[in-house]
Amino acid sequence: MDTVLKIDQEVSLASYTTFGIGGIAEYFAIASSEEVLTLLTEYAREHDLRVSVLGGGSNLLVSDSGVKGLVIKNEIKDITHKVENEKVLVTAGAGEEWDAFVLRTVEEGWWGLENLSAIPGTVGATPIQNVGAYGVEVGNLIEEVKVYSLREQKFIAMTKDDCRFGYRDSIFKSEAGKDLIVLSVTYSLSTTPNPQIHYKDLAEYFSNHSGTPSQLEIRDAVVEIRSKKFPDWKKFGTAGSFFKNPVISTAHFNELAKQYEGLPGYPIGDGTVKVSLGWILDKVCELRGARTGQVGTYENQSLVLINYGGATASDISNFAETVKDKVFEKTKILIEMEPTRW
Ligand SMILES: Cc1cc2nc3c(=O)[nH]c(=O)nc-3n(C[C@H](O)[C@H](O)[C@H](O)COP(=O)(O)OP(=O)(O)OC[C@H]3O[C@@H](n4cnc5c(N)ncnc54)[C@H](O)[C@@H]3O)c2cc1C
């Protein structure tokens, strides 16, 4: 039997984003299988429609004027695994909910993803910005990403190296990878315990813990720490950290560290230093909890912007510009936003 495609017109995207913001998608469809997804891309090609792929909408700022073309919400699901000695290769469909997937790996005793607990969104988006938290980046655990190339109209299996992972970055964010739709991701996990608790907050949390914490204890710790640092995205409009921590030259960092005593910086090689933007926003710019109208920085974490209700994408952008200007004025650092803008 032929597959019947359901494509809606004029769909508001606000309820599909955790910011609760966004205009109308000209066309909107849900892909629950690879077959439906490829048929939708064929439809888009025939009708000359640009394709945009949506996961959980937790890293997106959709413009008030909406999105032209076809928005495909990826809901491809399935989880399979293969054990090779102590290695477990777990493949998850791009539309699987990320945190439910992480919980499953913890319950199975497959080590690797526990530090990335409680991050909203889908599996398919994790390679896009190389999702990271508490000392772990997903790119280091990725074995393969299966994609559909809109340009070449074919399926491609990409290795970790092909993905060119960087800090909150990958090939998928560049011109070379913008036409790639993630269908599934294979993570290389381990049955051997490998607790990663060196990151400051986790190290403090476990400082009085006797013995090695279990995977579930690490997950619970991350969930608890995050609940104090991030607003509940089911209650407040937010996309999590709105700005990336900037990476600057060592010379620039040394100059700033003289001016602002205690400025945290982490050398990341190539003569560059990743600087804590949260610290700059708090101590240098005094923007913690700042608010204009219905937009503000979160009182517990200045990197996080909040839509307190009824804010538009322009309100968020304008507020972000004032933050950007203030940081530049004080530090000569040009900060970049983390969420994708549509
Ligand atoms: C409260 C909160 C806390 C957060 N904490 C963190 C954190 O600690 N670390 C972190 O890294 N991020 C964090 N985020 C950001 C966000 O949750 C992640 O980036 C997440 O992976 C985005 O997933 P998503 O499915 O919602 O993607 P979406 O927002 O739907 O999409 C984001 C981008 O990915 C693209 N995309 C999505 N799915 C696919 C696909 N299948 N194929 C191709 N492109 C695709 C979209 O086109 C878009 O460009 C946080 C967000 C919130 C709201």
Automatic annotation (TrEMBL):
Primary enzyme class: oxidoreductase
Pathways involved: Cell wall biogenesis; peptidoglycan biosynthesis
Localization per record: Cytoplasm
Annotated Gene Ontology cellular component terms: cytosol
EC code(s) of this entry: 1.3.1.98
Domain of life of the source: Bacteria
Annotated keywords: Cell cycle, Cell division, Cell shape, Cell wall biogenesis/degradation, Cytoplasm, FAD, Flavoprotein, NADP, Oxidoreductase, Peptidoglycan synthesis
One Gene Ontology biological process: regulation of cell shape
Ranges where the FAD-binding PCMH-type domain occurs: 20-192
Main localization of the protein described in the UniProt heading: cytoplasm
Annotated active site: R168, S241 (proton donor), E338
Substrates-to-products reaction catalysed: UDP-N-acetyl-alpha-D-muramate + NADP(+) = UDP-N-acetyl-3-O-(1-carboxyvinyl)-alpha-D-glucosamine + NADPH + H(+)
Cofactor needs: FAD
Entries under InterPro entries matching the protein: FAD-bd_PCMH, FAD-bd_PCMH-like_sf, FAD-bd_PCMH_sub1, FAD-bd_PCMH_sub2, MurB, MurB_C, MurB_C_sf, Oxid_FAD_bind_N
The keyword Cell division appears for this protein: yes
One term of GO molecular function: FAD binding
Keyword Cell wall biogenesis/degradation part of the UniProt annotation: yes
Similarity field: Belongs to the MurB family.
Described function: Cell wall formation.
Official protein name in the record: UDP-N-acetylenolpyruvoylglucosamine reductase
Organism: Candidatus Kaiserbacteria bacterium CG10_big_fil_rev_8_21_14_0_10_44_10
Upper classification of the organism: Bacteria, Candidatus Kaiseribacteriota
